[in-house]
Amino acid sequence: MGGVAKIPAAALWLLLGVVVALGVAATPAQAFRRKANHYDFVITETNVTRLCQEKTILTVNGQFPGPTIHARQGDVVFVNVHNRGRKNITLHWHGVDQPRNPWFDGPEFITQCPIQPGANFTYRIVFSNEEGTLWWHAHSDFDRATVHGAIVVRPKLGSAYPYPEPHRDIPIILGEWWNVNVEHLLEETMRAGGDFNISDANTINGQPGDLFPCSRKGTFRVPVERGRTYMLRVINAGLTNDMFFAVAGHNLTVVGSDGHYLKPFTVGHIMIAAGQTMNVLLHADRAANASSRYYMAARTFATNMQIPVNNSTATAVLEYSDAPPSAGPPAALPDLPAVDDLAAATAYTARLRSLATDGHPVDVPTRVDERMLVTISVNALPCATCEGPINGTRFAASLNNVSFVAPAVDILDAYYSSVRGVYEPDFPDRPPLFYNFTAPDPADELLFTKRGTKVKVVEYGAVVEVVFQGTALGAEPHPMHLHGFAFYAVGRGFGNFDESKDPATYNLVDPPRQNTVSVPAGGWAAIRFRATNPGVWFMHCHFDRHTVWGMDTVFIVKNGKTPDTQMLPRPPTMPKC
Ligand SMILES: *[C@@H]1O[C@H](CO)[C@@H](O)[C@H](O)[C@H]1NC(C)=O
Ligand SMILES: *[C@@H]1O[C@H](CO)[C@@H](O)[C@H](O)[C@H]1NC(C)=O
Ligand SMILES: *[C@@H]1O[C@H](CO)[C@@H](O)[C@H](O)[C@H]1NC(C)=O
Ligand SMILES: *[C@@H]1O[C@H](CO)[C@@H](O)[C@H](O)[C@H]1NC(C)=O
Ligand SMILES: *[C@@H]1O[C@H](CO)[C@@H](O)[C@H](O)[C@H]1NC(C)=O
Ligand SMILES: *[C@@H]1O[C@H](CO)[C@@H](O)[C@H](O)[C@H]1NC(C)=O
Ligand SMILES: *[C@@H]1O[C@H](CO)[C@@H](O)[C@H](O)[C@H]1NC(C)=O
Ligand SMILES: *[C@@H]1O[C@H](CO)[C@@H](O)[C@H](O)[C@H]1NC(C)=O
Ligand SMILES: *[C@@H]1O[C@H](CO)[C@@H](O)[C@H](O)[C@H]1NC(C)=O
Ligand SMILES: *[C@@H]1O[C@H](CO)[C@@H](O)[C@H](O)[C@H]1NC(C)=O
Ligand SMILES: *[C@@H]1O[C@H](CO)[C@@H](O)[C@H](O)[C@H]1NC(C)=O
Ligand SMILES: [Cu+2]
């Protein structure tokens, strides 16, 4: 941690003055970048107006979405987070492996105690082989609804992209907007469970777009020049939704996901699960006499219509700058698949393959040391006053029938300091009961779950395979996210995973390297990774209501034998519980 410059208190108040004086729209992001690799993130309550109402939300530097972090492959970046809000918060650098450096990963009570109001904490973000788009977000309560932003990782100076360099980068952050306070949403989710407020709109860069009342003025606009190629860095920051995204009149060439390159393929729309990123090239190649404005649009992908979703379409506008300005909105919306178009989503996901060239090789493990089969369920826990999945219960969620309970002090510190009683190292490798996981209408007794703070401990360097098995309990696609690693998503299918047949269908040649895999509703997905990153790493569904219901576990990867295969020592600046 040596060498982190301290910001003088007077300078901080100056920064806060800028936030208050300029408000959301005019805040210059550069003001918060003290040096190329050093940012100040001031958490503040900020008033914004959406859907005809003013509302107070938590922001970074008064911006929603928050500022973009720029880095090059292999950089180290410092972000000093000053908590000027009224509640505890932590930030997470989603998709950054942080080799040997779990201290700065961020999830509350997993790798750190929260940053309390009035306090500050400097994250040291260590990039390694990631190249592409990642993102950062709050990892406490439901704060990430508004506390999130893009991370753009370019190739090292002097290195080239594996495609012609795009003219400009355009972060496209897909999100959701709630008219209710997200703290209220969290309370509802924990108390009533099923009867939560669904989002009032999907958003593109914080804006619902032209199709919503009082929203046209704020609609996100992308100026483009004819003949140029743009890199859309699409991020799904939504709390509850997978999304389809498309641009009218233009195809999209997908070249990366989750900070790793893909074999390019061209599509009319993409499907992006919650937590994922997709890098897509857009060629501004409309005919000279064609329309000059085109809608970009995003809409939910969901398969279980019993679970309410907001079925509305968020829009942004692509505007050709060399065309005569035309009054009025674009002529047409792009063709988006229907909300429940499972075939479209499955076909898209099947096309993701690693680039796998000499410059960007793959190293897919062929031998497995730790084999895990992990069922994913939405469950019930007794609660006299609740009307959850059945009356007298509240909603919960589990992996292998363990509903994760977050401890009151962080697991990383307990592990590092050998404090007993915080967690148990016995997360099961197999479901405790084999039944027809995907058959509809499961028996009521299957609805209940155990609770615990159970973690999976693995040796340094072990190859871990996890097959996530969706069940009819909570039959929806679950975006499973692993901290600390980019894994290979080697297989995916429907029904119950068959250990004798399905491994033969794995792609061990060029599977996509991701940090979030979409486990299909009523199906399974298999991932593999080498546990060469010692530390404590959270794994959870990226639908936040499932996270808080307990659809989580933790990997503890033990130290290796040499100093460079061991966790870095505990920084003295860690917040205290
Ligand atoms: C912010 O919004 C809240 C709730 O709408 C309102 O009560 C408050 O006066 C606003 N504050 C400012 C500074 O506009
Ligand atoms: C950040 O916190 C440290 C204590 O952890 C304190 O010494 C320092 O003054 C704080 N800096 C700012 C700008 O608040
Ligand atoms: C949903 O939001 C409305 C206000 O828009 C509120 O009256 C209602 O109680 C909320 N319901 C739940 C379950 O949170
Ligand atoms: C989605 O949100 C919009 C805007 O608040 C609302 O008009 C619409 O009814 C919602 N859709 C659904 C299906 O709830
Ligand atoms: C998009 O790709 C399809 C299939 O290759 C092609 O038929 C279509 O013309 C393309 N559309 C545009 C706008 O380029
Ligand atoms: C644009 O020009 C092409 C060729 O010059 C012509 O075929 C096409 O009909 C024109 N389109 C419009 C919308 O005017
Ligand atoms: C969503 O809207 C489409 C068309 O507007 C409709 O066909 C579909 O049934 C709706 N789905 C839900 C879940 O409301
Ligand atoms: C749930 O149980 C409570 C208390 O027994 C009762 O008041 C309520 O009406 C029940 N709700 C339903 C949906 O059955
Ligand atoms: C599981 O249930 C599904 C759906 O009811 C059925 O098609 C399938 O045959 C069952 N599998 C087994 C092994 O019983
Ligand atoms: C999960 O655990 C609960 C509580 O012990 C038990 O009632 C239930 O049958 C178990 N379910 C499965 C699928 O193992
Ligand atoms: C904030 O964090 C501190 C330290 O872990 C904890 O003692 C306190 O209860 C937290 N506050 C809330 C409201 O959760
Ligand atoms: Cu989930």
TrEMBL record:
Cofactor binding remark: Binds 4 Cu cations per monomer.
Purpose of the protein: Lignin degradation and detoxification of lignin-derived products.
Xref: PROSITE patterns: MULTICOPPER_OXIDASE1, MULTICOPPER_OXIDASE2
Cofactors required: Cu cation
CDD domains assigned to the protein according to its UniProt record, in alphabetical order: CuRO_1_LCC_plant, CuRO_2_LCC_plant, CuRO_3_LCC_plant
Keyword set includes Oxidoreductase: yes
Domain Plastocyanin-like positions: 43-156, 169-322, 428-560
Assigned EC number: 1.10.3.2
Enzyme class, first EC level, given as a word: oxidoreductase
Family: Belongs to the multicopper oxidase family.
A Gene Ontology molecular function term of the record: copper ion binding
UniProt protein name: Laccase
Catalytic activity: 4 hydroquinone + O2 = 4 benzosemiquinone + 2 H2O
BP terms from Gene Ontology: lignin catabolic process
Signal peptide: 1-31
Annotated SUPFAM superfamilies: Cupredoxins
GO cellular component terms, A-Z: apoplast
Superkingdom classification of source: Eukaryota
Organism for this UniProt entry: Panicum hallii var. hallii
